[in-house]
Amino acid sequence: MRTQVAIIGAGPAGLLLAHLLARGGVAAIVVETRSQQYVAARIRAGILEQSSVSLLTEAGLGDRLHAQGQEHRGIYLQWPGQRHHLDFMDLAGRSVWVYGQTEVQKDLVAAGTAEVIYEVSGTALHDVTTDRPYVTFTESDGKPGRIDADVIAGCDGSFGPSRHAVPSRAFERTYPYSWLGILAEVAPSTDELIYAWHPGGFALHSMRSPTVSRLYLQVPNGTDPSAWSDRQIWDELAKRLGHGQDGWKLTPGPITGKSVLPMRSYVQTPMRHGRLFLAGDAAHIVPPTGAKGLNLAIRDVALLSRALVALLRSKDPRLAGAYSDTALQRVWRCTHFSWWMTTMLHTSGDPFDAQLQLSQLRWVVSSRAGAAGLAENYAG
Ligand SMILES: Cc1cc2nc3c(=O)[nH]c(=O)nc-3n(C[C@H](O)[C@H](O)[C@H](O)COP(=O)(O)OP(=O)(O)OC[C@H]3O[C@@H](n4cnc5c(N)ncnc54)[C@H](O)[C@@H]3O)c2cc1C
Q1: How confident is the model over 291-300, as pLDDT tens digits?
Q2: Mean pLDDT, residues 227-256 taken together
Q3: What letters, b where the CB count within 10 A reaches 16 and e where it falls short, cover 330-343?
Q4: pLDDT (average), residues 126-155
Q5: Beta carbon of 291 within 6 Å of any ligand 1 atom
Q6: Would you list the domain boundaries of the chain?
Q7: Which atom of ligand 1 is nearest to the CA of 160?
Q8: CA distance readout (Å), 366 to 85, 343, 371
Q9: Ligand 1 atom closest to the CA of 280, numbered from 1
C-alpha cells in the first residue's frame, strides 16, 4: 500500500489527524492494534477547552457536540468549610465543555474520512530519516502488511513504538498518588465540576452527561480498585466533597466502572525525527488534574495537519520544520499547569505542605490575578 501519511494509532490524535488531512487534500492510512469497538468504548477524558470545541466545529465535527455537550462557565474550588466558584467567562472570556472522549471518537468514526486498518500487531517503523519511510505490521488474518509513505505520524499513545524511534530527551515526573475513578449511573450532584482539597486526599466531582457522573478520589499508588467497596467509595467521596456543607448533598448511585489511574508527567523532545512526527500522548503525558491530555492531542494535530498539508501539497517545509518547537511551547505550558493543579490539590501527609496548599488556594480564590491565571490556563 502507498499513501502520503501513514498514521500509527486510531485514538483521537490519529483519527482527527486523518480527518484534517483529508479535508486538506492529503491521503492517509491509519493502523491500530485494537478493534474499533474497543477504542470507541474507552472511558477517558471528558473536558474540552473552548479552542478544541472551535476546532472540532470548524472541522465539521460539532453537530452532536453542540446538541449534547454541556457548556460550563467555570469550576468550583473548595476545601473544608469553603466552596468558591471561579467563573472562566468572567475571568478569561472562555468556557469549557463536558463532552466525553468516547463521543469525540464516535464523531470521528461517523465522519468516515479516515481509512483505518484495525487489529494489527507487530507495528514497526522503518527508514524514518529518509524520504521514503514505511510501516510494517501483521493484519488480523495473519497477512503481512506494509504502508509506504512520505511521512509517518506517531499517534500511538505512551505505549506505542513511535516514540522509541525518536532519539530524544525525556523529562519525567511520577507522582506519589493515583486516582480511583468511578463512572456512576446517577445525575451529577453539581452543575459544574468540583475540585476539592481535603486532609484525607483530593476528590473531584466531574460528569459525562445529565444522567452519568464521573468522580475521582486520591489514593496511594498501587491501590487495587476491587479493595474499595461501592459503599466505601461513596462514603469517602461524601466526606471529601463536603456532603452536608451549606446544605449541599452528594447523591450516590449504581457504579458501572471503577479503575485506578497513576499520575505522571512526561515530555519527549523533539517531537520530530526526519519524516516521523509525534502527536498526542506519544509525545507527552500530563496528570489529568488540569484536563489537558485530550486538548493537547487536538492542538498537536491541528498544527501538524497544517504543516503536512503545506509540506506535501505546496512543497513548503517551513511549518513542518517549526512543528516540534511550536507544539512544545504549548506542551510545556500545559505540563506546568497540570503539575501546579496537581501539587496544589493532592495531599502528601506533610502538615507544612498542607498549610502552603491552603494558603495558595485562598490566594487563588481571593485575588483576581490568581483566579484569572487558573481560568486562562484551564480554559485554554
Ligand atoms: C482515565 C483517564 C482520564 C483522562 N481524563 C482526561 C481529561 O479529563 N481531560 C483531558 O484532556 N485528557 C484526559 N485524559 C488523557 C486523554 O485521554 C489522552 O491524552 C488522549 O487519549 C490522547 O489521545 P491520543 O490519540 O494521543 O492517544 P490514545 O488515546 O492513547 O490513542 C493511541 C492509540 O494508539 C494505539 N496503538 C498503541 N500502540 C500501537 C501500535 N503498536 N500500533 C498501532 N496502534 C497502536 C492505541 O491502541 C490507541 O488507540 C485522561 C486519560 C485517562 C486514561
Answers
A1: 999 999 999 9
A2: 96
A3: bbeebbebbbbbbb
A4: 98
A5: yes
A6: 5-46+101-168+270-341
A7: 38
A8: 11, 19, 8
A9: 26
Cell matching residue 239: 466526606
**Residue type at 242?**
G
Note the pLDDT of residue 201: 98
CATH of 5-46+101-168+270-341, one of 3.90.950.10, 3.40.630.30, 3.40.30.10, 3.50.50.60: 3.50.50.60
Does the pLDDT of residue 168 top 90, yes or no?
A: no
CA of 281 to the centre of ligand 1 (A): 6
Residue 353: band (very low, low, confident or very high) from pLDDT cuts 50, 70, 90: very high
3-state secondary structure of 219: strand
The alpha-helical segments, DSSP class H, found in the chain are 12-23, 36-41, 50-58, 63-68, 88-92, 101-111, 230-241, 293-313, 318-345, 351-366, 368-379
Q: Strand, coil or helix: what is 172?
A: strand
Residue type, 330: R
Query: Mean pLDDT score of the chain, rounded to an integer?
Result: 96
